[in-house]
Amino acid sequence: MKTVSLRSIWWLSTLALVLTAGAVYAAEHREHPGRTHAEEHPAEHPGTAAITPDEIAKTITGFVTADSKLKGGYFVIYDAKKKEPLALTLVRIHKDKITKLSDDLSFVCADFRTPAGKMYDLDFYVSHPEGRNMHVSEITIHKEAGVPRYNWVKEGGKWIRK
Prior knowledge:
Helix content is about 30%, strand content about 35%. It is α+β, with helices and mostly antiparallel strands.
């Protein structure tokens, strides 16, 4: 009968410990813990489907609502032309005028009203570089009381602000 040396036992124990620790680490440090590989990496990326006007409108509504809660119930934007802040309330988002400017940028206009009743048309630019990871990237004052500060023209198949 062969005897097993203390050194062999130590090496086997160490190897078993390393393999167990590696398996535990791999299970705990997956890209998305608790999900299978197929769930972590689906065949079709959820951001590949076209973004709908409702999704863009919801992004803008959420942005305006969150900002208004922080600022006394009004959406506040600085009017650089008049050099003053405007306190506004959202009236409506023009879902029918949502325009795709590029693969990862859309824009839509929305009507706002001051407490005194003056109307403003703001253009919201919504970035969506990673599918549905949408966020408002720019806001401009397009019209004040129906008078445009700039216009949109189509050049070379793309809409340009002039």
